[in-house]
Design a protein that fits this description.
Three copies of one chain form a homotrimer.
Chain A: H1 3-10, E1 13-15, E2 24-25, E3 35-38, H2 42-48, E4 55-59, E5 69-72, H3 75-86, E6 101-102, E7 107-108, E8 112-113, E9 118-119, E10 124-125, E11 130-131, E12 136-137, E13 142-143, E14 148-149, E15 154-155, E16 160-161, E17 166-167, E18 172-175, E19 180-183, E20 186-189, E21 196-198, E22 203-204, E23 209-211, E24 218-220, E25 225-226, E26 231-232, E27 237-238, E28 243-244, E29 249-250, E30 255-256, E31 261-262, E32 267-268, E33 273-274, E34 279-280, E35 285-286, E36 291-292, E37 297-299, E38 304-305, H4 306-317, H5 319-339
Parallel strand pairs in A: 2-3, 3-4, 4-5, 6-9, 7-10, 8-11, 9-12, 10-13, 11-14, 12-15, 13-16, 14-17, 15-18, 16-21, 17-22, 18-23, 21-24, 22-25, 23-26, 24-27, 25-28, 26-29, 27-30, 28-31, 29-32, 30-33, 31-34, 32-35, 33-36, 34-37
Antiparallel strand pairs in A: 1-5, 19-20, 37-38
């Protein structure tokens, strides 16, 4: 793809050689003469001058002396567009591997299935979806079109997954929730009969676990992105376009709104409600039943508003001073007392 | 199953139509006229009046106008009993899938084995156990009767598992513990030759890891329930009827008593001893070698008694006030000094 | 193997029966008359007097009355050497299982491959490496010699792994990093085109996730040991001979030096730089962009120097006293005021 064509595609302003052929994508430091990269921010633009990249996407009104650049409003977003165009998506091998075990009643429309995948009775998979090697789709699972299930994904019976969903290896969807009733000196398992429902355009990382609902459903809304090793318990409801970083744990019946951003290793207690556009800092802990109001940012355990957390932290750091002052005051007070 | 029969089964007091046929189980909000549900607590009982459920399990001495109810001591427990009766457990497909690889010396008594499961030499599986698709049982693994190993479970050589144990997908039992000796500028692996022993009635969630002992064994006692993504290190000993929530990590040689309840994302350091009936709040951290006394409840990092933790937290929140007061006192003291 | 031979092997000083035959290894409490064990520290040496072990490795200049012992500089290290000699490494079954799916272009030199493993086009595996049952090596993966990949490991296309690397079950190497650009009300996936490069002598636990780089590579240096359920994000660079305990999460583009020791459940924010020989306490949290200086030890969230953390913690525990003192001072100050 020529630089000129890429400039047109991303709607940007080109400087330098429009005829240069671009065949790959790389980072600013490593990109070679047939690769495109991007530079955003003062430091990156400085580095860009020394880059060997064939073409650099830069912010509007910036240019880099001696380099072929395309100036756009959002260079990182433009790189996404350029990448999709340059690397025409790796064509999936067509067809179904001879070793895949597919139940007679499963319906697969123009689908790729890898070696040793197991697709049980009543499964329904939409067009152009790809089921990786060793993946297991149990009875009645529904998968939309254009999905990618990477190797070794396991989906328990009845889960429903939308279109353009990506699930990475080792992730388990629809296992029983963790619910017991304690009686007669032991834990009795509460029925885990609900489903997992995942909407379109969701991406789920590796080795994540999303449990089925106990009586209702566990739900993940459209466009939400979930990282590796995340735990989503039974009956959790997550809205649209959220981002949930690695190793976060979300307890039973938590409700999360839309456009919520959750850092890594966050813990959210049972029945917490998190409203739209909330931001939760990494490792924060939100106690059972709490409500986090729309648009707020919280951090710490138990989680407090970010500004309060920072203030408190500063005051904790200042404790030695405070203690010293109190000691002085006590001494002075003692002297005053004895002076009388 | 008729409402009358369910009432007899759970030993409850029926009000309303005893002849109604119940074929399923659902939540209070979604249950329809052929489904049973439960209501416990004032708010749920209020909701119950508007429910379309065919039958509602309620606490003793409560009734819900216009509804068919069964009053019992413990509605949630009664729902468990009713569910087991109504949904006669989904019959497992009989037999062994043609693609399962089973070593000639393995002994399997009336067992279900899914597609592409691998069962190595010397494995012994008790009656009515179910080994899911793609599960791998290595040399000499022992499994009791009536177990369910879901698809993709991996069990390393020699682990011993009791009866009625459930293990969810992606869980790895018996991998090497994490033990090294540092010498000559590198880490030398310490022998990991012990076993994992899991007693009867244990349930283990998805993608959990339980390492083998280094020289002794790692042990999980009867009736203990372990959630998803939990880490149990080498030589840990866990007692009976404990509950361990998701993403908790238990370091090497920790000893845990009976009836211990551990919240999510708790971290327990090497050689900690936790006595019977302890409760540990979510995200707590227990430093290496600590002893947590019988029946206590702890929270925070480093973990302190729950009441102390709450008091401390209140005092931390009050730090701005305290700092202000000290400032005022300093000013007053200064004035008094200058007044003299 | 005779005690005398073991003494020669580990370069130690024997006391007692040199002709005794040793066939196994066990812990101090359980070792029998044909087993070797070790005792280090006063308490263990006391216990050693009552041991039934055939031979006990003890520190130089110590002896245990009535026992056959070998005195060495480092007993635990000597046990590692003895174990390797006594338990001649379990011979791997030779050859490739008939059910393994191996692409015609894959190159395997004298390798063991288990049942239902899948090895795709362009994979290259060095001599004496072992690929467990159900493991999946995607296009172009490179594995050195003498590696052990346990069952159910998944490696995405193009990852490069050195020699003598051990990877435990359920671990996923090379899945897409978690990078999105938010625009037009949704998250656009940033290209994840880099690789994972793992050097020689690395060991990786179960169900760990190591993501590929987005544009550059994710890198793990020689001799580094990684525990279970660890998350390593895209473009992370980890040096040589580090130890990373279970459930730790390392965010994107973090740089870690050599000989770094990281406790369990640590969280490290984006672009943090950790210099050589740093120690990080369990559950610590290191905020985005921080630099932790060479040789320092840190703990807490946000992480502070260990000594400061402990001091601060003591001061927090002393808050009730401090508050009481301030109250008294206020009362006195009030009286003084009113006395005037």
């Amino acid at each position: 793809m020529k630089v000129e064509e890429i400039a047109r595609l991303v709607g940007g302003h080109r400087e330098g050689d429009g005829n240069r052929e671009i065949t790959g994508v790389a980072g600013l430091e490593n990109a070679g003469p047939t690769e495109i990269t991007f530079a955003d921010g003062a430091r990156a633009l400085e580095q860009a001058a020394r880059s060997h990249a064939g073409c650099i996407l830069v912010p509007e009104k910036s240019s880099v002396g001696g380099q072929t650049t395309i100036a756009v409003k959002h260079p990182k977003l433009a790189l996404i567009q350029a990448t999709e165009a340059i690397l025409a998506k790796a064509k999936l091998e067509a067809g179904i591997h001879a070793t895949a075990v597919i139940a007679p009643g499963a319906r697969l429309a123009d689908v790729y299935v890898g070696a040793y995948a197991v697709i049980e009775e009543g499964v329904n998979i939409g067009a152009r979806s790809s089921i990786g090697a060793g993946a297991i789709l149990r009875r009645g699972v529904e998968i939309g079109s254009d999905c990618i299930l990477h190797p070794q994904v396991t989906i328990y019976p009845g889960a429903r997954i939308g279109s353009r969903v990506v699930v990475h290896s080792g992730t388990v969807i629809g296992a029983d929730g963790f619910g017991y009733v304690f009686a007669d000196g032991r834990h009795h398992k509460f029925p885990q009969l609900g489903q997992v429902v995942i909407e379109d355009d969701v991406e789920i990382g590796s080795n994540t676990t999303i449990d089925r609902g106990s009586l209702g459903n566990t739900f993940v809304g459209q466009g939400t992105k979930i990282d590796n090793l995340v735990q989503i318990a039974h009956n959790v409801r997550i809205g649209r376009h959220c981002v949930i970083a690695a190793q976060t744990g979300i307890s039973g019946s938590v409700e999360i709104g839309n456009y919520v951003v959750i850092g890594g290793q966050v813990g959210i207690g049972d029945k917490v409600r998190i409203e739209d556009q909330v931001t939760i800092g990494a490792q924060a802990g939100i106690p059972t039943g709490k409500i986090i109001r729309r648009g707020s940012a919280v951090w710490g355990t138990p989680a407090r508003p970010m500004s309060e957390f920072k203030k408190t932290h500063a005051q904790i750091s200042n404790l030695p001073n405070l203690a010293k002052k109190v000691k002085e005051l006590s001494r002075t007070a003692g002297k005053q007392g004895s002076a009388k």
